[in-house]
Design brief:
CATH architecture of the largest domain: 3-Layer(aba) Sandwich
Number of strands: 13
Largest sheet: 8 strands, mixed
Structural class: alpha/beta
Number of domains: 2
Low-confidence stretches: none
Strand order of the largest sheet: 2-9-8-7-6-3-4-5
Distance between the termini: 53 Å
Shape: globular
Amino acid sequence: MAGISNRTKNLGTENAFVVLGEVNKRIAKGQNIISFCIGQPDFDAPKVVRDAAKKAIDSNKSGYTSSNGIPELRKAIAEYEGKIRGIEIDPDSVVVDNGAKPFITHSIMISTDYGKGDEIMYPNPGYPIYSTQTIVHGATPVPYNILESKNFNFDLEELKEKVSDKTKLIIINSPQNPTGGVLTKESLKGIADIAIDNDLWVYSDEIYQHILFEGKFESIASLEGMQERTIISTGVSKTFAMTGWRIGYIINEKLAKDFTTWVINTNACAGHVNQYAAAAALNEAGNDAKKMTDSFHRRRDLIVKLLNEIPGFRCLSPKGTFYVYPNVTKACEMTGIKTAEELRLRLLDEIKVAVLSDIHFGKKILSEGEHLRFSFATSDENIKKGTELIKEFIEKNSK
């Protein structure tokens, strides 16, 4: 039988979808699962978005588009994202694709050469695709730690020590999955200085830019000398409840042609109808986005309060995203459970509550203890019932 490459066999994955698959199988068997595992807004896409899509369908917008995206969308992106960051953005520096995820791969391919030992730095814990795509495309992964002890920021001196003459790209994510942490302006300045001093690219994953509960959104691209070397990556998925519409984009004037070449080689273009829908979201759905963020803010306060009432749980209040990342070290000790992953499995098996654990987001930081990740992009009822069941589980199983 024809073989399968080791590269494919060893390819990691986005564990939220793996766990979601497990959950859906249980639901299909009739189990009632309360799920906190998937990072997806539980709202409908705004009406203006749906109307724009219908209009595009009726206008027969069904063919290929320019590979970098339709002009109407790139113009909307340039105006919208430029205003937020206080910078001028040329629509020709924008490239659109089927979601923001492909641009992680494209950025690695653009900045490194296969098998040459080129290094990619990325946050740990962090979005797992950063590491899987680094490895599969022949670069060397160099994680830097995001620390609960630093309010889910990084240690700048540690980061500096990990930079080498092989470093090509630093990936940052703020607001951050899975912790909900937001990098301070001082942290961003520290990375900017490193990037400028060492002539590095920065991939800035800003997909949660609007789901922010404290302060003003800060982009590293707004700092002096950083717009030209920052690959701004974001999209409409999280802000406008459009995860399935698959519209993401990057912004970088110097690399736009290179990213377009990669889009041509992989997807040809993003979905035609969906691009008109995304333009409508950026131009007209600001109030809808604010209502969603306000709802997430309220849910954040609710879930943090309830998690901190569970024996052995310690939950910092996230400054952004719709995730919390409680420390469950003491809860594990109280119940004789060895790891957060073991706790996750028991919660799913015994009380039908689905969450993710720290091993789903990178290499465990032993000094930081055990963590679970909850997505609070779900109903108040689920938040209340799910945390109540977990509290009862810990109390029942404490030794």
